[in-house]
Amino acid sequence: MSFEVPSELEAELDELTTHYPHKRSASLMFLHALQEHFGFISSEAEEWTASKLGLQPINVHELVTFYPMFRQEPLGRHQIKVCRTLSCALAGAKVVRDAFCHKVGLDLHKHGPQTTPDGLYTVEFVECLASCGTGPVVMVNEAFHEHVTVEKAEQILAGCRGN
Ligand code: FES
User: Are 78 and 141 in contact (CB under 8 A)?
Assistant: First the structure.
């Protein structure tokens, strides 16, 4: 697969670097923009960013692997985020996450985000989604779901199948 940054995006990013005394200070902005465009940060994107900013690819890779908001793989069409912070954990977040994984055929014991081979679903634990009194809380793309149970997880998936 070839990696090509559209010329308008490249021009935008080039312009951005002029706002910083050191080009490398724009690293995170580059990565956010590339992730928004490509959906994730590939090793080609890391190399491209490094060459634009006068860095080594490892310098960029360190950022991508340090910050949890950066993705190294494409996401599924339906991104299911289950809050696992204390209130949601006590309310049953693990059971809910396992139900989602089980229903879409993902490994219950694997850590980190997982995507189904058909690219339809990504399931992952995330930290607090800022509705701690209504846990377990789940986000599916932009939709917010509260008091999620195993039964409700099934209904949510049924809704995804229709989209
Ligand atoms: S702990 Fe889950 S929303 Fe805050």
Answer: yes
